Amino acid sequence: MSIVLSDVTKRFGDSLVVSRVSLEVRDGELFVLLGSSGSGKSTLLRMVAGLLLPDSGRIELHGRDVTYLPPQQRGTGLVFQNYSVFRHMTVAQNIEFGLRIRRTPALRRKARREELLDLVGLSGMGSRYPDQLSGGQQQRVALARALAYEPAVLLLDEPFGALDVQTRSQMREALKDIQRRLGVTAVLVTHDQDEAFELADRIGVIDHGHLLEVGAPDDLYFHPQSEFVAGFLGGGNVLAGRAEGRFIRLGSVALPIPEAATEQEEGAPVRIVFRPEFVVVKAGASAPKDGVHSLGRGRVVRRTFAGALERVRLEVQGLQGARPVTPPLEYGQRGTPIEATRPASASEREPLKAEDDVWVGIRSFHVLAPSGLKVLIHVDGSAVADEGAMLGLLLGQAAGGPTTLLAVAEESQQVEEWQRRLEEILKRVGAARSPWLQSRVRIGKTVPEVLAEAQEGFYEIVVVGGPARGDRRNALREELSSRLLAQAQAAVLRVKRARPQLKRLLVCTAGGEPGKRDVVMGGRVARRAGAVVTLFHVDREPVSPEEDVRVKRHLEQGAAMLSALGVQAEIRSARGPVIEKILDESAAGDYDLIVLGAPTGPGSGRYGEIDHMAPVLREADRPILIVP
After folding, report:
1. Which pLDDT does position 432 carry in this prediction?
2. What's the CA gap between 214 and 34, in Å, rounded?
3. Per DSSP, what are the bridge partners of residue 532?
4. Which of 60, 287, 525, 604 is 20 to 30 Å from 199 at the Cα level?
5. What whole-number percentage of the chain has pLDDT above 70?
6. Which pLDDT score, from 0 to 100, does residue 604 have?
7. CA-based angle 213:219:220, to the nearest 5?
C-alpha cells in the first residue's frame, strides 16, 4: 500500500476535526476524499503532507512511518486550489524550483522541465510569467512543479475549485491522463461529486471528521450503506419503514425485501434508497407495470429543466408512517417528498406541470445497513447517573441503534473497578450480552473525556444525570451538558428519576425555526419508542391575533409532520408564566419525557432573555431531553 492511515485524529482546541480515520490507498491509485466544507478532508490531507501533525494515530507512506517527519522528508508533492505559483518566476523557474533546492544538476533539471512542460500541455511556454497565463495554465504549472522531483505520492487539495466549468473539465481529463501515464499514487480532496465520480478509482466519503464509507464510485452510488452517503451522493431518495415478514412496510405500501439484503428482525427499522432516475412518473388512471413497484398516487410539486434532464419534485400521499430521510419532510408537510429525473425528451412526449395528479413507482431500490439513534450514557457512580443509565438503556433499545455505557476514571488504577460497575448495570437490565450495547472506560478528566467520546463516536443523544440535592457533581454535570450541546451538537437527556417506559412525550416548542428542531427530535424519539406526542406552547403575555394565528399554525404543522411519520400527536397551548405552565402540564399529563430546546442566548429569540431550561430541569421530577 502507498498510504496507510491508522486511527488518525486531529483536534483544534475542543473541536474534533478528524476522528480515528483508518484508510489504505493502493499503489498507483487515484483516491478521492469527498465531503462538504468543514468535513475535515483538507485537514486529513495536510497531515499526510506533513503540514499538520496528528494528535494521535500513525501515517505510513510506502511502508515508512512518516507520522512526525517534516514535509520535505516524506516524498510527497502537493497542489493547492489557489495555484501557489511564484509570481516573480517564469514557468520554467517555477517547475525547476524543487529540483534546484535539491541541488539537481542543471542538465537534469532542464530535461525534467521540458518533459513536464510537454506532459502538462505547456510546451514552449517556459519563458512566460504567471500573469501571462490563464487560471487553468497556472494550475498546470503547479501540477508540473509538484511532479518535478518524482514524488512517491501526489496530494491535491481542491485543485480545480477556482477554475471555470469548461477549464475544470479539461483539467480533470489532463490530470487523469498524467496520473495514469506516470503511475503515481494520488489523493485528491474535493466537494464536487461530478469530479469525484469522473476521476476516482475509489472514493472515501468523509463527514464531520468521520470516514463513513470507502468504495468504487459505482458501488457507493448504487449500494451505499449509510443514510448520509445515500443522500449525499447523487441526491438519492431515502425512506425508513419497518420489516413485516419478507416485506418492508412503508405506510400503505409493502415492498419485497431483496434476497441479497441483510436479514431483518420483525418490526425493525428498515431504510431503503432509490435514485431519482429509477423513479417512474405516469399520468393517467392506471398504475405503472412491467417490473415497477408502485408507491401510489402523488402530485407534482415542481419541475425544473436541467438541460438533458428534467428534475421533478413529487409528493406521495400513501406513505404516511414511513420516515423520509432524504429529501427531508418539510415542517407542516403531510405527503412524502420524492425526487425524480426524466430525460428531457420524455418531458416533450409527456409534459408535466405543477399540481398534476400522477402515479409514482420505482424500478429498483437498495436496502441500507441497519442503524438507529446512537446513544451515549455517562455513568459517574451516583444514584441519579444510575437512574439515567436505566432510561438510556431503555431508549437505546427502543431506538434500535448502538448504545455505549461510558465511565471516566481519573487514574488507570480505577479502570477495573469502573468496568465492574458498568457490568453490574448491564446485568441489572439483562443487557450484558446485547449486540447493540457496549461499555467503555476512558482515563482523564470527566468533561473533556465525555465530550471527546461524544464527538469521536458521532452520538446523537448523550444521557447525563440530572441535578440532585446536595450533590457536589451538579456543577460538573451542568458544564458537561452545556458543552455537549454547544460543541458536540448532541441532544442531552438529563435524568433524575427514570420512568419504566417511554409512551408519552411532552414537546415544549416555541414558534419559529428553533421550535421546529425540537419537534423533529421529539418525533424521532417518539417514532422509535412508539410513543404519543403532545406539542405544547406557552405564551408569557397576551399576544396579538396575528401572533396567535402564527403559533396555532406552527403547532398544526408540527402535528401534521409527525402524523406523516406515523406518530400520534395532539396540540395544547397555555398562557402565563412559562416555567410554571410547563411544570403543571408535565405533572397533569404524567409524561415520561419532556423535550425542551436549549437556551439560545439573550435577544436571540422569543424566550432568549430567560433560561427556562434550568428551572424546569431543577423542579421537574421526570427526564428532560434538551435539543441543541
Report:
1. 46
2. 10
3. 504
4. 60
5. 96
6. 39
7. 40
- For the chain, the first-to-last Cα distance in angstroms comes to 42
Whose cell is 496507510? That residue is 4
Amino acid at site 8: V
b/e code 267-297 from CB counts within 10 Å (16+ = b) = eebbbbbbbbebbbbbeeeeebeeebbbbbe
Q: Whose grid coordinates read 430541569?
A: 617
Tell me: pLDDT of 366 over 50. Answer: yes
- As a whole number of angstroms, the distance between CA 352 and CA 304 comes to 10
Q: What average pLDDT score do residues 304-325 get?
A: 87
The Cα–Cα gap between 501 and 168 comes to 57
CA distance 235 to 226: 14
The distance from CA 173 to its chain's CA centroid, rounded to whole angstroms, is 30
8-state DSSP, 322: B
577: nearest Cα among 538, 519, 550, 614: 538
**Whole-number pLDDT of residue 551:** 87
Cα–Cα nearest to 53, from 74, 35, 83: 74
Relative orientation angle of helices 91-101 and 135-147, to the nearest 10 degrees:
20
Q: How far apart are CA 5 and CA 268, in angstroms?
A: 35
Q: What residues contact 597, with CB distance under 8 A and at least 6 apart?
A: 508, 509, 510, 514, 515, 517, 518, 613, 626, 627
Query: 387 pairs with which residues across the strands?
Result: none
Rounded distance between C-alpha atoms, residue 446 and residue 380, angstroms: 9
Q: DSSP labels for 82-146?
A: T----TTS-HHHHHHHHHHHTT--HHHHHHHHHHHHHHTT-TT-TT--GGGS-HHHHHHHHHHHH
Closest of 412, 398, 407, 417 to residue 376, by C-alpha = 407
- Give the whole-angstrom CA distance, residue 407 versus residue 421: 9
Q: Could you check whether the bond before residue 258 is cis, i.e. omega within 30 degrees of 0? A: no
521 φψ region: left (φ > 0), alpha (ψ -120 to 50), beta (else): alpha
DSSP H helices in 530-577:
545-564
Q: Can you give the pTM of this predicted structure?
A: 0.81
- Cβ 411 vs Cβ 441: under 8 Å: no
Q: What single DSSP character describes residue 371?
A: -
Q: Per residue in 23-71, pLDDT tens?
A: 999 999 999 999 998 899 999 999 999 999 999 999 999 999 999 999 9
Q: How far is CA 282 from CA 45, 155, 243, 299, in A?
A: 47, 47, 28, 11
